[in-house]
Amino acid sequence: MNRTASRRDSVGAACRAAAIAVVVGFVVLAAYLGVTASQVVDIDFLRRTPSGVAVTAGIGPALAGTLWLLLLTAVLALPIGIGTAIYLEEYAPRTRLTALIESVAANLAGIPSVIYGIVGLALFVRALGMGPTILAGGCTLAVLALPVVIVSSRTAIRRVPEGLRMAAYGLGATRWQVVRNQILPAAGPGILAGCCAAFTRTAGAAAPLLVLGTATFMSFAPQTPAHPLTSLPTQIFVWATRSQEEFAALAAGAALVLLLLLLAMNLVAALVVRGLKGAFR
Amino acid sequence: MSRPAAPADAPVLTAERLSVRFGRHIALKDVSLSIPRGRIVSIIGPSGCGKTTLLRCFSRMNELVSGARTRGKVHFAGMDLYGPDIDPVEVRRRIGMVFQKTTPFPKSVFDNIAFGPRASGFTGDLQGLVEEALTDAGLWSEVADELDTPALELSAGQKQRLCIARTLALKPDVLLLDEPTSALDPEATARIESIIRALSPRYTIVIATYNRWQAARLSDMTAFLDRGELLEYGLTETLFTNPREARTESYLTGRTQ
Amino acid sequence: MMPRSVSGAGTASRAMGERLVAHGLLACTVVAVVALAAVLAVLVREAGLFFADVSPWRFLTEITWAPAAAEPRFGVLPLLVGTAQVAAGAAVFALPVGLMTAVYLHQYAGGRTARLLNGVTALMAGVPTVVYGLFALHFVTPTLRVLWPGIEAFNALSACMVVGLMILPTVTVLSREALESVPAPLLDAGLALGAPKGRVVTRVLLPAASGGVLAAVLIAMARAVGETMIVTLAAGNESRLTWSPFEGLQTLTAFLTQLGMGDAATGTREFQAFFAVGAVLFVGTYGIHMAGRMLVSRSVGRTGP
Q1: Can you name the CATH fold of C65-303?
Q2: Which residues are CB-contacts of B24 (< 8 A; sequence separation ≥ 6)?
Q3: What is the ipTM of this complex?
């Protein structure tokens, strides 16, 4: 009896140790960021501009740049991605072509974001002549978000029970009425959750923006998408590459702001999802 | 079996050499039959015989399934339902279908019933229409005070009657019922059957059922389908007491199932 | 009662609206397909131009990568090896810990502990990789240098550890899903036969979930291979063929970030070299990802060994 008990404990204890290791890793990361960032973060930090002198530096332009990028991504990727998902699921006949589009989109969602960066540089910055602007960054991030939005929206739509669809058609609803009144309300929470995942991915993306060519010292916040590209993730990178500790603290401060922004975005989405589900029941 | 059983009435629906295939699978083969106005017609046969497919042909539902091919004709009051200028959405409003799996929308009872009329742009007295549909489906007395409750909270039998009421709210000419009682207990089944009987003079009703005794209890005429082919179609009494085909007889007496 | 018309004129305006919506949605699809096809087209075109100039054989066998040098050398091997080292190193940290955490979540953790752990993994999954990179360069590396003073400021070990931390949530969440797809009666049967829980886990649960766990490993590996910011920051960005975890290295992805910092002009071989590397990275991660997804779809609904 005792021997079996101790054997059960060995697997369980190892698994418990692994779980503790995960939590410890997270706590160390969070503590490092919190402690380091606390040296620099205050309200003014959000407004000041980057500077060669660490004490007067802030993230004003980078924060504005990230908000611009999020807006552009939302405007470009969400309607096109969700519209594509609806078309492929509810309108297009099931053919080899639609199956191919689905499989390619699913796999494109998994390729490294830096690849979108080099393509964005060739396409948006150079071929289309946008230059290293916020607009070029927004277009690149939109293409990066597109597969994720398409795949997660399709998955959510596909989970809607077939009976609901058929019942609505059977009552003489048109295709769009079925989509608007049955499919979208039922799939809405899933679509929103997927879009939120896509946004978390794009808001934190540094690599593709670095490739496009990012402005490292910007003394003013971007007012339009035609301004030079700057963002929180790339600002974090630029500061992190400086060897002085003061700049690492600035990077940690910017990282903390970015994390809070992502957290707030996800919390709002979670609340909306809960609200949608509540209204739907 | 006491109703006058000789349908001299004009046919409201006529299938003419109707064939349906899903990919390589042939679900219906050359089926021709007429549904007389104001009668109850049962379609019986072993599972997989094409009952549901035939029913779905009448409301052009099969084309929503990818890979479905329909050949042949269906006439509805003189029009070819599969003609080029026919709008399938309008067909489904005139020929209402209730599916085997009861699927109330995750909305209130009222919104469930109002879905069809709203979809077709109904502008009259929606409240009255909903009450009438629920009354006809024998549900009004049970839900009159709780039209706002989610339909998913109803009992199984109530859900089925809700689905019937939902279709009745379209004021269709024909009511197609696919296995209306397959998931219900005997008591709830009896209620549905009495409702179907009560609807019968006003609506032409076509029922697909695996339950041959239900067909015998309810219908004026019965069609026997086997492996996609219409083997026999006639007055229910004749079919049950004096079947022409040996396969019909063995099915009815339960020797094959 | 005559049936009302089924082809009436009242349907005309509604049919117009329907067509409009359908065309709008089709337009969305066309734009999306064109955008994604453009990604592939740019990659294929530029990589094609590169390989028209530099033979794939030289590309894959030469051992020096120096595209911007006066005498450019295009041997991708150092980048491939660097990428493989980082992925393998990250796997050493992340796979055992992630899998065991998934088992703990599935079999041992109580409701509150499970919620806490799920919350922690969700938060970790949401942290941008550039933040992990900052952590690697300014916390992990200095800590390692206290332990082993000989380590270079840019080293592979720090990058491996933090990439491992970064893919931990992926391994944990996907493995947990794989474990959850194993039917409970299978485990109950094992327990009912008197087998201790640890034995049921190693002999019944893990073998039954092996397909899904393997898929989790593959998808996590695709993320490690594609990881860019951590390796760029922590491992330096200098290509060299080395096996020492205490020295710096360059990966495929880290090299690609240099396109934004250099000034390679469109049409030059140096510019095209980035797309050749991008194409290699694309094929690799696409392949791993596809294999992982195929494993997932095959193992879903599979009941037991």
Answers
A1: MetI-like fold (1.10.3720)
A2: none
A3: 0.91
